[in-house]
Amino acid sequence: MVSPTKDPYPVLVSSPLAPTADAPPASLDQFLAGVGPRAFRFAEAGLRHREDALDAVQDSLIRMLDYREKPAAEWPPLFWSILRRRVIDLQRRRRFRLPFWRDNVDSDGEPVDWADEGPGPADVHAGREQYDVLVQALRALPPRQREAFTLRVLQDLDGATTARAMGCSEGAVKTHLARARDALRTLMENPT
């Protein structure tokens, strides 16, 4: 089992294959090496469970291999769309788990809150307190607002790429993003 305080993609973070912001990836392998850590943070914010997030990212990375022949410009929206759908699938499956499912309850039969399992990977880079406030605020957002904020702001995708990944118009992305920023501002100023 991976320690919760270590980055699950230590090789990918320092990989010489990781693309720079100036140059597009030369190969799918280079693209996948650069997107792994950001994809993990996106999946973990949506799933609230480290292992589920790792599984979602791994599944998405594997599915991208089928699109090796696509032009490099299409890889980012395609990947984020695949990952987004995988996260939503896992969220839906989790809703239908029975209460006695062994992963959802502790030894006393009480529901387990996966968000309190331990520190997340971004804790290495940011102060624990600020990170926790941000994560709690993101989790309080409606799913579409959380996706728009995460893809546009945290992943730094442009409006068109975000719209294609989310399967909506650029105007809808702007609306979701504006609402997410307003809600986050309120939630972060008044954390509970």
From TrEMBL:
**Might you give the EC number(s) for this enzyme?**
2.7.7.6
Which is a GO BP term held by this UniProt record? DNA-templated transcription initiation
Q: What GO molecular function annotation could you give as one example from this UniProt entry?
A: sigma factor activity
Q: Which domain of life is it from?
A: Bacteria
Any keyword Transcription?
Answer: yes
Q: Where is the RNA polymerase sigma factor 70 region 4 type domain?
A: 133-184
By sequence similarity, the record places it as follows: Belongs to the sigma-70 factor family. ECF subfamily.
Protein name as it appears in the record: RNA polymerase sigma factor
Native organism is: Stenotrophomonas lacuserhaii
